[in-house]
Amino acid sequence: MPSPDYSIYLVTDSTMVPETSTFLSQVKQAVENGATIVQLREKKLLTLDFVTQAQRVHEITRAHNVPLIINDRIDVALAIDAEGVHIGQDDMPAKVARQLIGPDKILGVSCASEAETIQVCEDNVADYVGLGTMFATQTKDVKSVVGPIGTRRKLEVLRNHNEKSAKKISCVGIGGINQKNVAKVMYQCRVPGQTLDGVAIVSCIMAAKDAGAATRQLVNNYHGQFKSDWAHFSEKLASFSSKPLVHHITNNIVKNFSANVTLATGGLPIMSELPEEYEEFASLDIPASLVMNLGTPNTRLMHVLTTGLHIYNQYGKPVVFDPVGAGASKPRLSTCRELLNAGQFTVIKGNLGEIMALQKLSISSQVEQNSEQATMQGVDSTVELDSEQVASIATKVSQEFRAVVVVSGAKNTIAEYVDEKASRIAVVDGGHPIMGSVTGTGCSLGSAIACYVACASHNKCDIFEAVVDAVKFYNEAGARAGAESKGPGQFSFNFLDELALGQAAREA
Description:
Layout: E1 8-11, H1 23-32, E2 37-40, H2 47-63, E3 68-71, H3 74-80, E4 84-87, H4 94-101, E5 106-111, H5 114-123, E6 128-131, H6 147-164, E7 170-173, H7 182-188, E8 190-191, E9 194-195, E10 198-201, H8 203-206, H9 211-223, E11 245-249, H10 255-265, E12 268-271, H11 278-282, E13 288-293, H12 299-314, E14 319-322, H13 330-342, E15 347-351, H14 352-359, E16 376-377, E17 380-381, H15 387-401, E18 404-408, E19 412-419, E20 422-428, H16 441-458, H17 463-484, H18 488-507
Parallel strand pairs: 1-2, 1-10, 2-3, 3-4, 4-5, 5-6, 6-7, 7-10, 11-12, 11-13, 13-14, 14-15, 15-18
Antiparallel strand pairs: 8-9, 16-17, 18-19, 19-20
Helix pairs in contact: 1-2, 1-9, 2-3, 5-6, 10-16, 10-18, 14-15, 16-17, 17-18
């Protein structure tokens, strides 16, 4: 039998159906408008009622050549000759389920952890696995939310299995996936040689007032390109066609300096922690970007950060992330994990210690033996590696999080993972030693980058080259200012002047 199409995997829930529709109508509209496989999940129906419901659903799915999967109940699946069964980790072992249903029916297994995924691969009797939980959901009790980060680790396990085994195991992402985030999920949940084969959907179809329209939108977004995934163009961004709006969610210590750097670089700074106005900013038809700085995290700020990330992702506007002090404490690293799971970043900028801390969240979480001594003191990095080691770490983080990565320091390394065969690396000298004595110069590099990528994104220019240009521009201004300054106080004034003079020269 040919491999099923798992792309739009509808999981039913009869408790969500709106009053204006019926359960069977929701299923029928879904399969007529793009659902490629249906799982019937009923936790509370008596056996006879379950069989009756399954027969009715099967009539709909068979008419559209869509496989029907029965959740948990092998007896019901066999009674109506459904195409397959899906079992969880708390149900019978996969090998026993395969013996009961025979070799020709579809068998799916839920995997909430890497260990469970490894076990399914070792058993080698499943046709597909459900990888979750992607995001928090109210449709079922959740053991853990793994996000795209945890999902990528499971994909790595599957890839290793599928490369060696004649029996390939497909996979679908499960948990909290909807029309708004499906493109991002498909964009983020991939490793070299392995991607998701589909997404499991519940409420955004079953609870929809128009299930047909909801399904069509989901299908369109599933196959669409995530807005932050800009193609590379050959032209360089010579100058800003209009002043970019740079929205900062940053720490209190650097707000004023970052605003001044943005102005001097040719941008329009906004310092806002009021989520209610974020959509108004992001929806403007002008170059715009968001800078997220983790300098002073707190519970309220996390809501502000995630809201901003979601809205700017929704409108396809670039987001620059500065994981300040990521390696200084476990709570900070946990906060970074939450944000990296919550949305897509265009650029991730940090010092070597911060970038190495993010690597701990990646698939290749074991750093090289010669870099095991990487530590953080406050927000400063204390590790020193050669240029090839730094480039390797930056590339791995870029690959994991699908972002351009900037490692700041005496030499700035910019990396972009392209594919298994190619990466782009740039090393930018410049700056001045005195910059390390002025609070905000590190954080404000993110402001300059945000100005450049806002314009690059708006004009469909090369994001990587825009980042490189921004770092060069920033460091050149720092070098000139440092040469003219006796100390950090004088440097601050000179630096802003040099940025402004440099930007004026670009616009001339």
